[in-house]
Amino acid sequence: LPSDPEPTPPPQHKPYLIGVGRADCTGPPADVPLMGYANPQQTAAGIHTRLYSRAFIVDDRRRRVVFVTADVGMISQRLRLEVLKALQVKYGDVYRQDNVVLSGTHTHCGPAGYFQYTLFMISSKGYIKASIEPLVNGIVKSIDRAHRNMKPGRIYRNKGEVDDSSLNRSPHSYLNNPEDERDRYQWNTDKQVLVLKFTDEDGDGMGMLSWFAVHAVSMNYTNRMVSSDNMGHASYLLEQDKNPGTLPGQGAFVAGFSSSNLGDVSPNTRGPHCMNTGLSCDYLNSSCPVGGTKMCQGFGPGNDMFDSTRLIGHNIYRKAKVTVCLSVCLSACLSLCAVEGDPFWDGIRDALLGEPSNETQECHHPKPILFSTGEMNWPLPWHPQIVDVQIITIGSVAVVAVPGEMTTMSGRRLREAVKQVSVATLRDTEVVIAGLSNVYTHYITTYEEYQVQRYEGASTIYGPHTLSAYLHKYRGLARAIAQDKVSELPVGPEPPFFKKLFNLLLPAPVDRKPANSSFGDVVQQVYPVYRQGDVVSVTFVAGNPRHSGDMVRQKTFVTVEIYDNRTAAWEVVYTDASWETRFHWLKGSNNRSNATVEWHILPSTPGGSYRIKHFGHFKQMKALRPVISPYEGSSDVFRVTDSFYYE
Question: Which residues cross the membrane (predicted)?
């Protein structure tokens, strides 16, 4: 790798105007389904790590662009529309549809409920205001902070390779691509990481933005805690490194790790195994002899999902630190292999619409269609019919915002197509794909991969020629940028903003507690002494975290505090955003619940006197009206020492 990357040349020798900003966008960590695994039973019940939006504004004195990477499964069209509306109110025409890119890291452990299309609402209990409002507010606040912090600066570009962090989960589909095309690449995944480093005029670091292709699914579908997963952990590590002495989410340096063409790329480097036998899953269909596809799960590289998240996140962080609307098949269709031919799902399909038309079946061949979602409009359209395509340029880097999950080879073809158009006018052009951007349209495979109809092909909803349509559109955008004819591009139709959205999540009930107790009381107390490497655990009488509202983003449910003998005061050393803590919400019967806080003590933790505090809110009825009140609780004081024998 080059040790001294050259800065991207500022236009007319004037420095760029650069702004970076970060804001909490954590939604309610209770009751709400988590977005990604499409499992309505996987509802939030605590916090592993908090979710953040990270914004980067670059102004070359001619044009201004904004790139946001948010700890979210994907950017939905509804989320983008609400963010753009809020930005228009604040800034007028400064930040618009054409110069703002919103991209999701693809964590599968963030609250769902921020879509306006039926298919997504069905699997996530509808449109949930308590979920989308923190996302909108957090994204807008991160842009606000970047806007306020803008200053003259420079941008440095570098790239490297991240090893031992990715595995192609559909190699059979990949092998269906032409052999001569595959021979041009050493790997069946893209191991390249592209890094942009932002500094002020004095060379002091302001932030870093990078792209790497890997699914943020180290935390698997059994997890019920809100988590930013491996990409979020990479951001956490670099920000802690560059902002020493600060709590997570604080400090001036902002580190964004963004998704790329990750469609067929898994972080589970040991591969898929059957949970009931430990043997490898069937190569072709990822199923097990007993239990089918539901028993097949990817593992590694760690001993459990937390360890795997840590290892993958650290690998990406370490390398980044070193390198400091579609016209083909207008009807969208989705095939879910696990339920194909199931009488229950077939019955729902036929009752709602009837079997797919011959034209649709021919268009999507060889896909066995479960739902012809492009022909389904009750109670609202099931899939987007207007899709944004977008490219922004930062110096000589072209950022291609892709509205879905491109496979490895699809991404390679797209990068090559854009580069061929751009290279004639932009010297040393680097093309990078920003996945899960602006609107979600599931997967985008090559034509050859589509024929295999693995998961990715079955989830390519616009048919076998989807990639060809995207290549055509992005070539047109790249050509307009290269020829400075962006103003001549047609705006295209406006996406719909539906008014009547349904919500299937019931309001959180009143909270109850055991007799002769108060919210915040300790149910299970800490031990008096712990050693480095131990896990401290304490359980409190708790309220439903959904009642905490804005506290979810502005404060914390947890603090770990050390007693400072010099000041005779308690100092917060960890919060629920810290990797070392875990906040579990335990829902009991009769509207009672507990909160268990874990602190995983690092070997480097200094000895001393500590306590753990929990903060929350509970709801009661007073005079037939709901009243929400705050509470807090504290553990006993305990010591951390390198020995149980102390004076």
Answer: none
